[in-house]
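ok trying again, last paste got cut off:
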Amino acid sequence: MVDNVKYPESGATDIATHEFAAVQYQKMLANFLAGGNVPINVSTLNGLPIAPSAGIAGAFGEFRTSEPKTLFSSIPRYDEEGVLFENNVVGSATINHDANKASVSLNVTALVGDTATRQSRVYIPYQAGHGQVFRFKFMLGSPLAGLERCVGCYDDDNGFFLLQDGTVGLKLVHRTSTSGSVVNTEVLQSAWNLDPLDGTGSSQATLDISKAQHMIIDFGGSVGSIRVGFEITGRIVYSHVFLFSNTLTEQFIQHSFLPIRYELITDGTNAGSMEEYSSTALSESGFIETLTNTFGADTGIVATSVSGSDNVLIAIRPKLTINSIVNRALIALRSFSFLSTEKAVRIRVIYGATLTGGLWTDVNSSFSSVELNTTVTSISGGVEAETIYSKGESNAGSDIRNKYPLALNSAGGHPTTPLTDTIAIVVDEIGGVGSSDSYAAMEWTELV
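nice, full thing came through this time. structure:
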């Protein structure tokens, strides 16, 4: 290469070829914008440092080359997806499905305290060392005084979200309860440190919040950085990064299991609405199933005598707390098995039913987040997730993979509507009279 060749399109970088100690190298003067000019010696022993741009870098700074694992996905095409989301309203607020737009609309009237909150039932699981990505597609609309519209991965205690304050403007919010109290750190749009998206930043892009948006939030666990960006002209432009590594004396949130949430609040000045189009959560480096814990429970070695229909042999649900902390574990039923010693029966796995009677006890008070009940007296409602038939003097079983979340509600209690947090094995006799001796067992995984 000829010495001192200039490449104006790369910032008038000077490139020269030299030889020192029998090693040929190129001397480069790189311009790093605010960092100024930095000399770099490049050779076969000292390669040119290359880092991915923000849009193609993962939460840990790596190139996004791995296949992501989808942990949660919601597109409200037909209804509000009540299995996946919990809707809560205060006052005269409403949450409705819009069939024409295939969206969910959150609405408040001009009454003080009207609030509409839509939160995923499951808290999206996080595995250490994996980049976590949340994607939201939504419509906030033009700002209105007295209205707060929020979108993000957060709950009442922890998380990150976009807040449209109708009086002040757009903010990115970090919420944490590591001190024992809820603390919100709000960053106004004018102070976003990567690009304020007002036309003055490096992208020269302008965020028009009155239009439909695609927002991305990614992070790498409880210590590190959290980035927020928006898709503009077909590419992700990162607007702000919260930097927590080497800056705090504690982790930035209590835990990295976070729900997806949409929220609309009014102080009574104005009525308003917002829309959710879709929500997705991904693990950038896959999700290792073997890191979950496997547990099982059964009806014991003494047979349960069943007759007629709707006999609940065994049921499980999340217990309220783990070590006095609200239980947000990921619980998924894997399989069940059944044995009948006499008659032909139908075996059903029912999710979200209302169960009456019996005693709920810990599966394992030291290690499991689940409790079980083998003495339920009645069942109503719910969703039939699996059905098989078994002839007398035989056994049966099935592997199960479904999207029904076994999760507490947003307040940390057992939900009652539209579905509960239970899953049960129910037996119905087919024809004949008398009773049948039956046994049942369940196996599930937990990630806490």
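cool. Confidence is low (pLDDT under 50) at residues 1-23. The chain has no helices and 34 strands.
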